[in-house]
């Protein structure tokens, strides 16, 4: 037998051995992610599950208004993290003087329905360039972490043309009046604006493809079993919670199977939702006996990103200090 033929036969035996024996698939352990910030005051934390990092961290006091950047979207949100509210005066005379009283404030409804903002439909959106109703809105700029008022403004949305919003705003007594333009951007879901310094644009949100969820204070229905940052009215309070990226992200939860039991064979059997606050503040509770936050470790959350990759999460620890800065740890694993 020639040397070449002998080597060929040995190669065939080697291939047969490799094919015939199943190699065990090692189950990779979940990764531990932690958000621990010693900064004074609450912040927004934008989390990327693929890279396992916080891609942006911004003080919640950096902005007031968020302008919709969707091609046919024209909603304007207020900063719910500060407990901001809006009252529609229903007058179109901007120079009207207003008293500093407690109006019947409306608040943003942070879910998948973009139409339920505190400002609401400020114009006729059936036009390519929306025609404004020219209502004067009173804006409550919310509270700081000492629960002190951050002030008030009156606001008129003058319109939106060719992707540029125009707004007019001033103090209740017509001082510090300004007109400002806000240009839509294609790389983010919202453009952010602050009334500070006469008006300025702020860099808050990363590119839509770069983050999956946001850890932030937000407004939700009052839960008797949880501890809020502060109460707005009989129905609503500000809580620390998790909001899903509204741009091509989906989420679901499972309280039946353990975190370890949920694998790639199960994730397609779930019904996913785009509800931004589905996780919300439901992953923890306040234990009044120990005076500590307790995470609900029996709840596993699954988040599907814009590439249809699915991640499972289990929250392990949550805490908030006296300055409303939070710490969070959780397990995450690709499915």
Structure write-up:
- With 335 residues, the chain is mainly beta.
- The protein has two domains: 31-58 and 208-334, no CATH class; 64-202, no CATH class.
- The protein is built from one helix and 23 strands.
- The radius of gyration is 25 Å and the shape is globular.
- It starts with a helix and ends with a strand.
- The model is unreliable at 1-26 (pLDDT under 50).
Q: What is the overall shape?
A: globular
**Average pLDDT figure:** 88
Low-pLDDT segments: 1-26
What count of structural domains?
Answer: 2
**For the largest beta sheet, what order do the strands appear in spatially?**
1-23-22-21-18
What fraction of the residues are assigned to beta strands by DSSP?
A: 35-45%
> What is the CA-atom radius of gyration, in angstroms?
25 Å
Which structural class should the secondary elements be placed in? mainly beta
Briefly characterize the structure:
This protein has 335 residues and is mainly β. The chain has one helix and 23 strands. It has two domains: 31-58 and 208-334, no CATH class; 64-202, no CATH class.
Which features characterize this protein?
single chain, 335 residues, mainly beta, 2 domains, five-stranded antiparallel beta sheet, 1 helix, 23 strands, globular, disordered N terminus
Set out the fold topology:
Layout: H1 3-20, E1 31-36, E2 43-48, E3 53-59, E4 65-68, E5 76-78, E6 85-88, E7 123-124, E8 131-132, E9 137-140, E10 152-161, E11 164-170, E12 178-183, E13 190-194, E14 200-202, E15 213-221, E16 230-231, E17 236-244, E18 250-254, E19 284-287, E20 292-295, E21 300-304, E22 310-320, E23 326-334
Antiparallel strand pairs: 1-23, 2-3, 2-15, 4-5, 4-13, 6-9, 7-8, 9-10, 10-11, 11-12, 13-14, 15-17, 16-17, 18-21, 19-20, 21-22, 22-23
């Amino acid at each position: 037998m020639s040397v070449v033929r002998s080597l060929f036969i040995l190669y065939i035996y080697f291939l047969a051995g490799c094919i015939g024996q199943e190699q065990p698939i090692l189950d990779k352990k979940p990764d531990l992610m932690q958000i621990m910030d010693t900064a004074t005051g609450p912040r927004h934390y934008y989390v990327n599950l693929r890279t396992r990092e916080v891609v942006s961290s911004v003080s919640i006091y950096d902005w007031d208004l968020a302008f919709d950047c969707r091609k046919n979207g024209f909603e304007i949100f207020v900063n719910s993290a500060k407990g901001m509210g809006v009252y529609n005066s229903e007058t179109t005379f901007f120079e009207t003087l207003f008293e500093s009283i407690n109006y019947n404030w409306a608040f943003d409804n942070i879910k998948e329905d973009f139409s339920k903002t505190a400002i609401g439909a400020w114009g006729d959106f059936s036009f390519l360039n929306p025609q404004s109703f020219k209502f004067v809105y009173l804006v409550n700029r919310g509270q700081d972490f000492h629960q002190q008022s951050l002030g008030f403004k009156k606001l008129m949305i003058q319109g939106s043309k060719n992707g540029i919003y125009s707004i007019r705003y001033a103090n209740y007594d017509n001082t510090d009046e300004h007109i400002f333009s806000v240009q839509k951007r294609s790389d983010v879901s919202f453009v952010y604006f602050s009334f500070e310094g006469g008006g300025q644009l702020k860099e808050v949100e990363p590119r839509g493809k770069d983050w999956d969820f946001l850890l932030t204070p937000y407004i939700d229905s009052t839960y008797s079993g949880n501890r809020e940052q502060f109460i707005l009215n009989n129905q609503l309070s500000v809580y620390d919670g998790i909001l899903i990226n509204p741009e091509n992200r989906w989420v679901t939860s499972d309280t039946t199977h353990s975190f370890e039991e949920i694998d790639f064979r199960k994730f397609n059997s779930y019904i996913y939702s785009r509800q931004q606050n589905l996780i919300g503040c439901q992953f923890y509770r306040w234990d009044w006996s120990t005076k500590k936050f307790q995470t609900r470790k029996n709840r596993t959350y699954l988040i599907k990103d814009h590439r249809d990759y699915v991640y499972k999460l289990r929250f392990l620890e949550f805490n908030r200090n006296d300055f409303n800065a939070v710490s969070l740890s959780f397990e995450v694993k690709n499915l």
